[in-house]
Structures are given as C-alpha cells and as structure tokens.
C-alpha cells in the first residue's frame, strides 16, 4: 500500500472494503478492494490468486479496468480503475420517482450486455450482477465491476459475516438449491433491467420466506405500458422460471431494437469481431440443442445455499412431512448481530431450509421449537 495514498472509504460489503486511493507514481485515482484472507487455507488462497489472474485478463470498454493486485498484512488488495460517476443503484435512487426514458435504459442495458457477453464468452460467470456493481464513468459510460471477486470470497469465513441485506437478485434455481450456469446471470440481468424501468426491485417481500416464494413463482408487478412492447417482452423472457428458456446474452444482443445500438459503444473493429462471433454461434435451423446446467463448486456460498441436489422422492417426502407439522423459527442474539431477531412460521421444509441458510449467512443461529428437526 506504500504506492498509494488513502483518500477515503467509499464502500463496504460482501467483498470487504472499497477504498479510494491516489497513486504516488501517476497521481491518478483508483479504487482498491481490500479483502481479508488471513482465515483462508493455502488451497483457498491459491484459488483466489487464480481468480485474480482471470480478472486481470478482462479487457473491455464496458468492464472496470483491472490495474494490479497484491497481498499484504493478511489482506488481498485488488486495484481497479475509479468510476467517478458512481454506481447505477445510486443513479436510480436519485431519480426520486421520475422514470428514465426508454432511450436511456436501452443504451445502458446494451452496454451491460456487451460487458456480460465478454465475460460469458470466456466461460466465466459473474454471479453478482446487481445495480450496485454497475458503474458509470465521468462521461456516462457503463462499466460492469466486481465479477470474479464474489468467487474469490465464496469459500472464506469472512463472507458470511459481511454479507448483509436481502438477496433480491437470486434466481429460482439458486433458491431451489439446484446447479446453475450462465442463465442465472441472465435472471439477475433482468432484475437490473426491471430496476431501471420501475426504480424498484422486481421481487420484494417483508421476509426471506416470502421473497423466495415470489422469486420461485416469478411473480412481479408489471412494467408501465409507457415502455415499448419490445422492452416489456424482453423482460418477460429474462424472467423465465426455467433457465433453459431464458435467452443467452448473444441472443439478447441480436434483437433488432438492441443490435442497432451496439455501434454507439464499440469501435468498428470490436463490433465487427463480435458480429463474427455471434454469427458463428447461431444454431442451424431446427430444434435448438440445450446443454445441461454445469455444476459449479460452491456457486451460492455467499447466500448460504450450497449446491447439493436431492432426489425428487426425498424432497417430496420431506415437504409432505413439513406440511403436517409447522415449524417455528427464532434467531437468538448473537455476537455478530446484536439485537437482531427472526421469528416466523413455515409450512414448507424447503422454505425453512432457505431461511435457515440465510440466517446462518448473517452469522446468527436458529432454535427449532419442534421435533421435526
């Protein structure tokens, strides 16, 4: 850290801390992500280095530029470019109820898609797409950030203690404890598009159980007819409950009302190269082959949802048993969450499982007042 002068802390979340710094060599401002790794095993540290190496190879006008990384005093430091325009979440909140124009939404959305395509083309999942991880530069260019960092943190002890807030962007397959692939990123992309259109989250509820149920059902308030049918239809496709029915990011960008905007954000050469890739990946006429979801090691650990697939017969049996005996859950006072309590009733074994994992993520504990468990 001797090469940088600390200016101020600008954020704190699941990744650790975000610190605005000034380089002592070129006088430019950067953001350093400070991640505690002292509790990692040697294997986990090695994995984190591999993830940072992947991050270093990302080069795209709509992706936050990586500068360098280093380890010091039990922390991993990742130096990234600083986006002066803030994040999309703050931009949305600053609207104070005034909707964005469709022109603005589509321009932003195309840039997000171009960044995500660059990531997916390299067989990498972002896994933490949300408006807080989408940034704007000084000239208003959209840049996607923090991909790879979530994966670095998936196996750390620190994550469960620092990850706070409701996971509005969870896909149905993660909620249902199933393996997932890049289509979960597409679901989260839909959540961001919905936020830009309504200035609200697509799925909101007073507690975790109801939020999970809403996500699984795919029930969300409709977008205003103020927006075009093309936009509203696209949103419905992104929110398909079956991940196989959601379009890939390449298919999304191939839609005429979006494709004609691409040239505004990419150089002619990059645009031409992308076109060649899209054309080469277009399936031949006939049934579209669908590849099975790839199982990823601990992809949802940050939400406390491990990827273990239960046999349908077992799941049905357990849900049936749970319906017969309601479960009362109560979170006890813990050192990490003083004064926080969670009380609720569940008639579904599945919902109680999700709630259990979520409360554990917050560093709490559950006391079961039933002989079911």
UniProtKB/TrEMBL annotation:
Residue span, Protein kinase domain: 4-258
Nucleotide-binding recorded as keyword: yes
Signal peptide annotation: none
Catalytic activity, as annotated: L-threonyl-[protein] + ATP = O-phospho-L-threonyl-[protein] + ADP + H(+); L-seryl-[protein] + ATP = O-phospho-L-seryl-[protein] + ADP + H(+)
Molecular function as annotated in GO: ATP binding; metal ion binding; protein serine/threonine kinase activity
Top enzyme class: transferase
TM stretches of this protein: 339-359
Matching InterPro entries: Kinase-like_dom_sf (IPR011009), NEK_Ser/Thr_kinase_NIMA (IPR051131), Prot_kinase_dom (IPR000719), Protein_kinase_ATP_BS (IPR017441), Ser/Thr_kinase_AS (IPR008271)
SMART domains xrefs: S_TKc
PROSITE patterns: PROTEIN_KINASE_ATP, PROTEIN_KINASE_DOM, PROTEIN_KINASE_ST
Pfam family, one: Pkinase
Required cofactor(s): Mg(2+)
Assigned EC number: 2.7.11.1
Keywords: ATP-binding, Kinase, Magnesium, Membrane, Metal-binding, Nucleotide-binding, Serine/threonine-protein kinase, Transferase, Transmembrane, Transmembrane helix
Binding site for ATP: 33
Family label: Belongs to the protein kinase superfamily. NEK Ser/Thr protein kinase family. NIMA subfamily.
Protein name (Swiss-Prot/TrEMBL): non-specific serine/threonine protein kinase
């Amino acid at each position: 850290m001797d090469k940088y002068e600390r200016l101020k802390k600008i954020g704190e979340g699941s990744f650790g801390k975000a610190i605005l710094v000034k380089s002592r060599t070129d006088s430019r401002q950067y953001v350093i992500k400070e991640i505690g790794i002292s509790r990692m095993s040697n294997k986990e540290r090695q994995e984190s280095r591999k993830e940072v190496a992947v991050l270093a190879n990302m080069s795209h006008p709509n992706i936050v530029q990586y500068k360098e990384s280093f380890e010091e005093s039990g922390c991993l430091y990742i130096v990234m470019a600083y986006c002066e325009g803030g994040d999309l979440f703050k931009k949305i909140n600053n609207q104070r109820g005034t909707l964005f124009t469709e022109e603005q939404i589509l321009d932003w959305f195309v840039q997000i898609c171009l960044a995500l395509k660059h990531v997916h083309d390299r067989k990498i999942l972002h896994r933490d797409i949300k408006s807080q991880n989408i940034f704007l530069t000084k000239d208003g260019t959209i840049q996607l950030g923090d991909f790879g960092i979530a994966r670095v943190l998936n196996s750390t002890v620190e994550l469960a203690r620092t990850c706070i807030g409701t996971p509005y962007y969870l896909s149905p397959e993660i909620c249902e404890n199933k393996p997932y692939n890049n289509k979960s990123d597409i679901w989260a992309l839909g959540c961001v598009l919905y936020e830009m259109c309504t200035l609200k989250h697509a799925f909101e509820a007073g507690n975790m159980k109801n939020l999970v149920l809403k996500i699984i059902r795919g029930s969300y308030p409709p977008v205003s007819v103020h927006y075009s049918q093309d936009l509203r239809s696209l949103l419905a496709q992104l929110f398909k409950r079956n991940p196989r029915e959601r379009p890939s990011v390449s298919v999304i960008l191939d839609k005429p009302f979006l494709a004609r905007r691409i040239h505004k954000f990419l150089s002619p050469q990059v645009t031409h190269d992308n076109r060649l890739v899209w054309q080469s990946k277009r399936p031949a006429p006939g049934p579209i082959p669908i590849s099975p979801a790839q199982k990823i090691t601990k992809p949802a650990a940050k939400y406390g949802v491990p990827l273990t697939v239960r046999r349908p017969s077992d799941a049905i049996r357990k849900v049936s048993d749970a319906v017969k005996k309601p479960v009362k859950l109560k979170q006890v006072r813990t050192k990490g969450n003083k004064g926080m309590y969670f009380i609720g009733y569940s008639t579904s074994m599945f919902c109680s499982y999700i709630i259990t994992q979520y409360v554990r993520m917050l560093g709490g504990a559950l006391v079961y007042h039933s002989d079911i468990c």
